[in-house]
Design goal:
Layout: E1 2-3, E2 15-19, H1 23-34, E3 38-42, H2 48-54, E4 57-59, H3 62-66, E5 72-75, H4 82-87, E6 99-102, H5 108-117, E7 123-129, E8 144-151, H6 155-167, E9 171-174, H7 177-200, H8 211-224, H9 228-236, H10 241-267
Parallel strand pairs: 2-3, 2-5, 3-4, 5-6, 6-7, 8-9
Antiparallel strand pairs: 1-9, 7-8
Helix pairs in contact: 7-8, 7-10
Length: 274
Amino acid sequence: MATASSSTSSSRPLKIGIIGFGTFGQFLSKTMIKQGHTITATSRSDHSQLCSHLGISFYREIDGFLEAENDVIMLCTSILSLPEVVKSIPFHRLKRPALFVDVLSVKEYPKQVLLQVLPPELDILCTHPMFGPDSGRDGWKDLIFVYDRVRIRDEIVCSSFLQIFATEGCKMLEMSCEEHDKLAARSQFLTHIICRTLSEMAIESTSIDTKNFQTLVKLTESTTNNSFDLFCGLFIHNRFAKEELKNLEVALEKVKQKLHDRMNEELGPSVSRI
């Protein structure tokens, strides 16, 4: 794992096309526009009015989008819909090679899809901005941006794109897609599955909350604000997540056993098991 500032004297304004102009795509585009980059977008939903307000060219049809001569095409789809979206792209419509960037929360899976589907002349950068509209509401300073230069020929375009996040003060971490997924399964997926479990229990604030419980409630609320599709994608398409789920189940059983053993010591073995 290496850190990188991504600063370069050859950084330049980019034409960035966004496929999938949902909440996350909109969130990223606002900062990119602020930095002077030109944004185009296409999406299944009609966002033409919002794009007009933001100064973004919106294309209902992907053919016109691809012919807009973007330097970068950013894939802001859901994890589950990625293969369908990528396979439907008419790459012959591109006027020139572009850098394709994914921003999904898993990394090995999009890397495999993009290498299989994209023509070899197109560059690939796999990234994960480890923040979103909630955590990045007040700026991106010190928030983590992970990236893997999967297939890069045009260093100027790639560096210029990375500079967007470095300029905002992100902690730039270059690591392999495999290493990202292994670490994310232990951190991001565990956070999601614990909060989803607490949500099923319908935990909520009480009149005697401790500070820790207040933090737990807020974390559960913010985590479950993410779509269930994202949660499913984190499990289905991160091969390390299955092992972490098993580890969590084993750990819970160990804790239950320790409680049961201590209860037997204190009250005697006749007490019902937990």
